[in-house]
Amino acid sequence: MIEIKSVSKWYGEFQVLTDCTTTVQKSEVVVVCGPSGSGKSTLIKCVNGLEPFQSGEIIVKGTSVGDPKTNLSKLRSHVGMVFQNFELFPHMTIIDNLTIAQEKVLGRNKEEARDKGMKFLDRVGLKIQAPKHPGQLSGGQQQRVAIARALCMDPICMLFDEPTSALDPEMINEVLDVMVELAKEGMTMMCVTHEMGFARKVANRVIFMDHGLIVEDATKDDFFGTPRSDRAQQFLAKILQH
Amino acid sequence: MYEMDWSSIPGALPLLFKGLLITFEVTITAIVVGIVWGTVLAITRIGPNKILAKLAAGYVNLFRSVPLVMVILWFYLIVPQGLKAIFGDDIGDIRLTSALVAFALFEAAYYSEIIRAGIQSVPRGQVSAGLALGMTQGQTMRLILLPQAFRNMTPLLLTQAIILFQDTSLVYVIGLSDFFGTAYKVGDRDGRLVELLLFAGAIYFVISFSASLLVKRLQARFVK
Questions:
Q1: What is the pLDDT of residue B1?
Q2: Membrane-spanning regions, if any (chain B) (predicted)?
Q3: B1 located within any domain
Q4: pTM for the structure as a whole
């Protein structure tokens, strides 16, 4: 589904990604972790072309992301993305947040978009919030709406960029629950997260990044059982202490 | 001591009202065209095309560095020549037209700076979110960025409009009878310049001050 081949990226002189290679199969859940500044968010943003990269290739369901001839908007319309800071549109109601791209990008009519929006709002347990504005919801609720917004586009895969990092601790679980459910339904997911509990529960593979390199790319059991690199061992020891 | 005599005002009211309409016409045209053209300039300036961005920046800096009175005079001297070249000598009174053009183009430079700041006040992540949903750059700008930008900058746009309303009195330099010009002419004609100018000043004050109160109330509502 997602093939990342030897991707490198520079900000001026500074190299943020070095020769990153990995794949995400259909229905696979891959967790990307690593210390901050390791390039994990940058890598996931390269997958849907939000960040350009200078060398290598990324193929999403047969479409090359880096190819200048690729219609990036069309590609992105069926690759769902959830951001650290939710990024709901504050000037619209919740339901309008869910319908706008369905109407303007996919060309669905109003009723169809609304029905779909309400269906996914219901799934994340927020149907009654439909007429409110994002500012009136808690962080956890906003992030669930953001997931529903992405699902409304019938995505072939979902990218999560630290979806719980901006949340108060008591709200993290309500978001993770939605993600676990999605994973169990067979959604292809690539998640940048520090939630190792989530990784243990649903991840097929775990990728560990450091200084722009993919240091470790292993099945969940191997990663938590016997991480090969020292750096990954240190990282795990640190975050699992708490 | 100078004795005030207000008696020439009531009779001149219809004339003054006509002048006020001209003032409003110039103000409103400059606001509408200024915001539309200013938006185009602002988007061009932060857009990907470096050459167009430079041109837009040049335009804005030029108009912001020249006194408004001079711009009004320039357009009074240049626009007629252009129009004559296109339509022949029979173009009638072009004072109003040239004032409208001058104000619209001049104000666009100021509005574009406000709008540019407004666009940049919207978090970058909003653009990413729009693009990630498959929207084009244009759709993201139109549906996501601009509505939020305009909401953030409404108070500034209105404040600029109030300044503009007062600045329109400068059209007296090309002899256009706006509210101020008319008041001046009536005062001159009747030898009651002081009374007429006081009266005109009071009207400008009432309109501008009520408008700024309105802005304050709007601002309070937006901050909430």
A1: 64
A2: 20-43, 55-79, 94-111, 156-176, 196-215
A3: no
A4: 0.83
